[in-house]
Amino acid sequence: MLKTSWNRCRRIVQVSMILIFLLPLMGIYQVIGTLSSSRILGLTLTDPFAFLEILLASKAVTITFLMSALLIVGIYLFLGKVFCSWICPIGFLIEGVDALKKKWKWLTRIQLKKAVTHEQKQYYWALPFFLVLSLVVGIPIFQTLSPLGILYRTFLFGLGLEAFLILMIILLELAGYRRGWCRTLCPIGVFYALGSRWSPIKVRCDTDKCVQCFKCVKACNYTAESLKSTITSTSEFCVSSLCTRCGRCIDSCSSGALQFSLQPVADLLSEEGGEKISRRSVLQGAGMIALAGLAYKPSQALAAAAPRVFRPPGAVRDEEFLAKCLRCGKCIEVCPDKTLLSAHLDQGLNLGTPYFIPRRVPCSLCMECPDVCPSGALVPLGMREVKIGIAEIDKNRCYAYQDDVCRSCYNSCPLIDEAIKMEGFQYPVVDPEICTGCGICEYVCVMEYPAIQIKRMM
Fold first, then answer.
1. Domain that residue 444 falls in
2. Is 94 domain-assigned?
3. 145 exposure class (CB count in 10 Å sphere: 0-12, 13-18, 19+)
4. What is the pLDDT of residue 458?
5. Is pLDDT at 114 greater than 50 in this prediction?
6. Does residue 263 sit within a domain?
7. Is 253 in the same domain as 305?
8. Do 327 and 365 share a domain, yes or no?
9. CATH number for the domain including 263?
10. Per-residue pLDDT tens digits for 345-368
11. Which one of 251, 302, 330, 382 is at 20 to 30 Å from 351 when CA atoms are compared?
């Protein structure tokens, strides 16, 4: 019987996951979004950690949003911490750096002399830190700065300065801090590790076949000590909560002693759960919580500090929008006119959120974007209920007010003769009560510097 190459299977899954989320670039929208939140064949799925951040930042939740996160929780409670080795694009990137270091030996020369070699150490401070910081400042901090989201948004919506964070992760690996991001800074891996002990899928060692060559221990990037303890004791299963089920240990075992197996429920309930969170880790988390408290700023002030931009139709007020937006990009992908853009680092705290520039591409008010937003940052509305802004006419620049003939804004208005009316068959006049702020009038204005512009509502 042919031996399964778990590493090959894993590579196929990793590459497939990346390509699947890039399908919208080819006009295929059966899968949209990123790993923060996605819609796959009509089913909405949300990263549980992203859900918790949005919940704490906005202090609000809907049942549909909760269910989209619970589906993922159920999957990983069964599969364990497989996200890190099978799904995460950062994990795939880091393994690519490892492969390059093996192929190009000169890369190892830039490694720091005192490189970290304690591959078993996992720091837990990032989990409480990001959750508490999101609660305190009212913005999902990790979703804003997450390299996973940045990587996908770079592929889907273009390169920005925030991609420098990806470069920093690569440099961290080259400097000798193996899995430095994963072990020290990433709260997602910690989140899945906490539930991993309940996964029935474990690496099982057949001690009758094991020759204790320790090739598997050398191949393991995360739980080498626990694996070594398993094969040198009477323990049958590797119970480490940090095991990512990557299968590298199984592939390296020439005697066939290791395999994936289902742990009996009785053993699963009676085990102590592998690595425990040390007192030092708890103190680290407490320290980060204290720092979060010191970093406290009212969410209103943070929202005011972010550059003011035009949001998609149905967007809640600025403060609430920054708290609820998942930065998943689904609204941007479904926009038929490619109106919406993803904010880059030059937009400050707006990073990753959707916005548009009326003069570049206006909003056609198709109202498709609120339908794909699971968190409530965009609320479904009728076209006449939309209030993105209000059009204002500069009479000193408008052709019509200079006794010339021009009806560009009037003729293009989706609410013609309502939002914009013609006074005396000559002069366009905006009704601020009806104007939606879609920006079509600004877009079609024949002036190089438009005589009619959308102004944000205060």
1. 387-456
2. no
3. middle
4. 64
5. no
6. yes
7. no
8. yes
9. 3.30.70
10. 999 889 999 999 999 999 999 999
11. 382
Task: With CA atoms as reference, report the closest residue to 356 among 410, 404, 320, 315.
Answer: 315
- Domain with residue 338: its CATH number is 3.30.70.20
Question: Last residue of a domain, which of 358, 379, 400?
Answer: 379
Q: Are residue 354 and residue 391 in the same domain, yes or no?
A: no
Phi and psi at 184, nearest 5°, equal -110, -40
Verify that 327 and 394 share a domain, yes or no. Answer: no
Angle at 386 between CA 406 and CA 329, to 5 degrees: 105
pLDDT at 195 over 50: yes
pLDDT at 163: 92
Instruction: Give how far the C-alpha of residue 22 lies from the chain's centroid of Cα atoms, to the nearest Å.
Output: 14
Structure tokens at 264: 């009996």
| 153 compared with 123, residue with greater pLDDT | 153
Record the tokens describing residue 21, joined without a space.
Answer: 């989320």
Residue type, 429: V
> What is the 3 state secondary structure string of 72-111?
HHHHHHHHCCCHHHHHCHHHHHHHHHHHHHHHCHHHHHHC
* Cross-strand partners of 392: 453
Domain count for the chain: 3
Least confident of 13-17, 56-60, 367-371: 56-60
Segment 234-253, tens digit of pLDDT: 678 888 888 999 999 999 99
Strand 354-355 relative to strand 31-33: parallel, antiparallel, unpaired?
unpaired
Q: Which residue, of 270, 288, 322, is where some domain finishes?
A: 270
Q: Is 309 in the same domain as 374?
A: yes
Side-chain-side CA neighbours of residue 241 (13 Å): 22
**Same-domain pairing of 399 and 375:** no
Residues 372 and 397 placed together within one structural domain of the fold: no
What strand order describes the sheet that includes 31-33?
31-33, 37-40, 43-46
- Asked if residue 130 is part of any domain, the answer here is no
Q: pLDDT digit string (tens) for 278-310?
A: 556 556 655 666 665 555 556 667 777 788 999
| Degrees to nearest 5, angle at CA 315 with 147 and 69 | 50
Q: Which residue has the tokens 């500069």?
A: 394
How far apart are alpha carbons 133 and 295 in whole angstroms? 8
In a domain, 449, yes or no: yes
400, 355: one domain? no
SS3 percent helix, strand, coil of the chain, rounded to 5, is 45, 10, 40
The closest of 369, 260, 403, 324 to 32, measured between CA atoms, is 369
Helix (H, G, I), strand (E, B) or coil at 43: strand
